[in-house]
């Protein structure tokens, strides 16, 4: 009976472990952008509903909408601008 041939076992090459880079800088930028958006909205809101200064609130709503055309509060800002 002929001897069975066995294929040699070849080890897979060692790969370096993945390097995980924490997106610290981009997270800080996102936090700063969110804080700026909040500040713009809160300023317009205060002028409108606390000080009842419609002319200034209208300008503040416009500033918010110009700076944040896709912001979280765009529907509210548009509505409040219309009511001012």
Structural class, by secondary structure, is mainly alpha
Number of helices: 3
Distance between the termini: 98 Å
Radius of gyration: 29 Å
Largest sheet: none
Low-pLDDT parts are: none
Net shape? rod-shaped
Task: Please provide the count of β strands.
Answer: 0
User: Percent of residues in beta strands?
Assistant: under 5%
Element string (H = helix, E = strand): HHH
Helix content: 55-70%
Mean pLDDT: 87
Provide a descriptive summary of the structure in words.
By secondary structure, the protein is mainly α. The chain has three helices and no strands. It has helices spanning 24-50, 54-67, 74-83. Helix 1 (24-50) packs antiparallel against helix 2 (54-67) and helix 2 packs antiparallel against helix 3 (74-83). The longest helix has 27 residues, at 24-50.
Keywords summarizing the entry:
84 residues; 61% helix; rod-shaped
Give a topology summary.
Blueprint: H1 24-50, H2 54-67, H3 74-83
Helix pairs in contact: 1-2, 2-3
Short description:
The chain has 84 residues and is mostly helical. It contains three helices and no strands.
């Amino acid at each position: 009976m002929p001897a069975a041939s066995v294929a040699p076992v070849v080890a897979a090459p060692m790969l370096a472990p993945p390097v995980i880079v924490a997106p610290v800088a981009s997270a800080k930028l996102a936090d700063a952008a969110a804080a700026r958006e909040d500040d713009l909205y809160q300023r317009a809101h205060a002028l409108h509903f606390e000080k009842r200064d419609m002319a200034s609130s209208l300008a503040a709503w416009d500033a918010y909408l110009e700076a944040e055309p896709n912001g979280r509060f765009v529907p509210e800002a548009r509505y409040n601008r219309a009511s001012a």
